[in-house]
Structure formats: structure tokens, C-alpha cells
Specification:
Its EC number is 1.-.-.-. It is an enzyme of class 1 (oxidoreductase). Keywords: Oxidoreductase. The chain has about 180 residues and is an alpha/beta fold. It has one domain: Flavodoxin domain (Rossmann fold, 3-Layer(aba) Sandwich), CATH 3.40.50. Helices cover about 40% and strands about 15% of the residues. The protein contains seven helices and six strands, in the order βαβααβααβαββα. The longest helix has 19 residues. The radius of gyration is 16 Å and the shape is globular. The model has no long low-confidence stretch (mean pLDDT about 100). The structure holds ligand FNR. The site of ligand FNR has 14 residues, from α1.
Length: about 180
């Protein structure tokens, strides 16, 4: 069994990116499970909080999910041509404590959806130095840039477009296959 931890970088109820992650989980091939982690309860990073109460429970949960996963799937929105702060904040927290060891050597794929025309290209590029610093192994065989998302998702954020679902299934299949080969 191959396990992938999927994280959406949006807190919005009808988020395109959370919908993209849900669809990826639905479309995962037999033998692969995509666990949908949540960044919702992760507080803003504060070194004083860390020194006092330690790593917050929500972060510890994510770290445990990452420990159990063969790969990580980041589903990123794009804000002002970069990574949304809430998403970077969660990953920064996850890298604390023993977290760096969890990222090191972990295969990571990045996808994203945007109502604009460029489908999170710049946010996906923005992740690259972060993934390098964390010592991950980025998976570059596939690319998934979902643009004009308003026409592809329903008003609850469910991915309804057949062509995009097909491309997503192929993407997840490719990532899962690379994980079962050992990354
Ligand atoms: C955006 N949005 C946006 N979209 C994009 O393609 N490029 C960008 O640079 C930005 N910048 C940006 C800044 C801020 C502060 C917000 C709130 C939004 C639009 C963004 O893609 C849109 O809100 C998506 O719906 C966010 O993803 P979710 O929440 O649907 O997953």
C-alpha cells in the first residue's frame, strides 16, 4: 500500500484547491491512499509559543501523517504570485522539532488551481527553494496547472470537469507509480 499525505493550502469552504485534493484522493489508483491533512488549526508560527508549550497538537498530527506517508502532495493556491502565507506557515511549523528529518528524502509533488489564466505557475515555482531547503525530492515527471477554475468546479468546490479529472488521475497515477518504485 502506498500512502500520500495531501495538503491543501486554502481554508476557504468551497476552495478549488481543497476540491482538487478531494478529487485526487477519489482518483488515486488501487493500492494508493491519499490522506487529506488539515492546516486549519495550525497557529501562526511563534518561537515563544514553541519554546513554551512546544509543537502545537495540529502540527504534531501533520508531522505524524507525514512520517507515515511515502510521499507528499502539496495543492497550492497562488496569492500575489507566491505561496499563501497560511500554507507556508504550516510547512514551517512542520519543519520544527524532528520535522526536518521527516521531510528529508521525501518525494513531493505540487499541483494547484486558480481562477486566473496561469494555474498557480508562480506559486508552484515559489515552492521550489522551500522544497530544496527541506531536503525533499521533488517529483517533476508530471505537471498540473489548473487555470480558469471557476468553469471546472461547482459552487461547493467539487471538481466536475471530466478532462481535468482525467489529467489529475494520470498525474496521481504517475506520482504513485514513482513512489511504489521507491521514489
Ligand atoms: C489571489 N488570487 C490570485 N490568483 C492567481 O492566480 N494569482 C495571484 O497572484 C493571485 N493573488 C491573490 C491574492 C490574494 C490575497 C487572494 C485572496 C487571492 C486568487 C486566488 O487564486 C483565488 O482566490 C483562489 O480561489 C484561491 O484558491 P482556493 O481558495 O479557491 O483554493
Amino acid at each position: 500500500m502506498t500512502t500520500i499525505l495531501g495538503l491543501s493550502g486554502s481554508l476557504r469552504r468551497a476552495s478549488f484547491n481543497s476540491g482538487l485534493l478531494r478529487a485526487a484522493a477519489e482518483l488515486a489508483p488501487a493500492g494508493t491512499t491519499i490522506t487529506q491533512g488539515s492546516i486549519r488549526d495550525v497557529p501562526l508560527y511563534d518561537a515563544d509559543l514553541e519554546a513554551g508549550a512546544g509543537i502545537p497538537q495540529a502540527v504534531q498530527t501533520l508531522q505524524a501523517q507525514l512520517r507515515d506517508a511515502d510521499g507528499l502532495l502539496l495543492v497550492t493556491p497562488e496569492y500575489n504570485n507566491g505561496i499563501p502565507g497560511v500554507f507556508k506557515n504550516a510547512i514551517d511549523w512542520m519543519s520544527r522539532g524532528d520535522g526536518l528529518a521527516l521531510f528529508r528524502g521525501k518525494p513531493v509533488a505540487v499541483i494547484g488551481a486558480s481562477p486566473g489564466g496561469f494555474g498557480t505557475t508562480l506559486a508552484q515555482n515559489d515552492w521550489l527553494p522551500v522544497l530544496r531547503t527541506l531536503g525533499t525530492i521533488p517529483w517533476f515527471e508530471g505537471r498540473m496547472l489548473v487555470s480558469r477554475a471557476g468553469a471546472l468546479f461547482d459552487d461547493r468546490g467539487n471538481l466536475t470537469d471530466d478532462k481535468t479529472r482525467e489529467l489529475l488521475a494520470r498525474f496521481v497515477q504517475g506520482f504513485a507509480a514513482s513512489l511504489s518504485r521507491g521514489g
